[in-house]
Amino acid sequence: MTKRAESKYKINRRLGVNLWGRAKSPIAKREYGPGQHGQRRKNKPTDFGIQLMAKQKLKGYYGNIGEKQFRKYYDEAVRRKGDTSENLIELLERRLDCVIYRMKFAVTPFASRQFVNHGHITVNGKRVNIPSYLVRDGDVIEVKEKSKGLTAVLDAAQSGERDVPEYIQVDHRQMKGSFVRAPKLSDVPYPVQMEPNLVVEFYSR
């Protein structure tokens, strides 16, 4: 197991939130941070600390994206016209592993990344195994025929933990869907409050 995947069990407790809104989250049982010093009294966070926490929440939510890659998304968001924070959310939501998660073909962002890595997904009929692949408006995403009967996929599709957002269309009988349009921050069904404006402040210090 990679450090990135292994750390998912500590992310919620470190941030003090149920990041993915799952009933299995350890934060439900232990609201303090992980480790031997997790129960120490917390000091009032500084502006820097608040901005850092906002960045860690956003990175963690999308499967604990590495800092180098996340910084690239920020730089691209700055380069594009419009609101930088909205651009950042759009780029993250266009990731193929995120789209698979939104379509409920995988139960967590980590499982979604693994699902794409293992070659179970096609985009417009072509196999794509790069989780960070950016999906375009109208792209058709489908689970490969041999993978449609996998228990993990069927369980995820039938899960009642979350709904498919309006900017995604999906047919769970055919295990096929499409990315309709770029979402705004208000369209994204985050279980916790995300503050990409604070992420922009963090990087523009």
From TrEMBL:
Pfam family, one: S4
GO molecular function annotations of the record: rRNA binding; structural constituent of ribosome
Matching SUPFAM superfamilies: Alpha-L RNA-binding motif
Positions of the Small ribosomal subunit protein uS4 N-terminal domain: 3-93
Function statement: One of the primary rRNA binding proteins, it binds directly to 16S rRNA where it nucleates assembly of the body of the 30S subunit. With S5 and S12 plays an important role in translational accuracy.
This protein's name: Small ribosomal subunit protein uS4
Keyword tags: Ribonucleoprotein, Ribosomal protein, RNA-binding, rRNA-binding
InterPro entries: Ribosomal_uS4, Ribosomal_uS4_bac-type, Ribosomal_uS4_CS, Ribosomal_uS4_N, S4_RNA-bd, S4_RNA-bd_sf
Domain RNA-binding S4: start-end pairs: 94-158
Family to which this protein belongs: Belongs to the universal ribosomal protein uS4 family.
GO BP: ribosomal small subunit biogenesis; translation
Gene Ontology cellular component terms for the protein in this record: small ribosomal subunit
Subunit structure: Part of the 30S ribosomal subunit. Contacts protein S5. The interaction surface between S4 and S5 is involved in control of translational fidelity.
Entry-linked SMART domains: Ribosomal_S4, S4
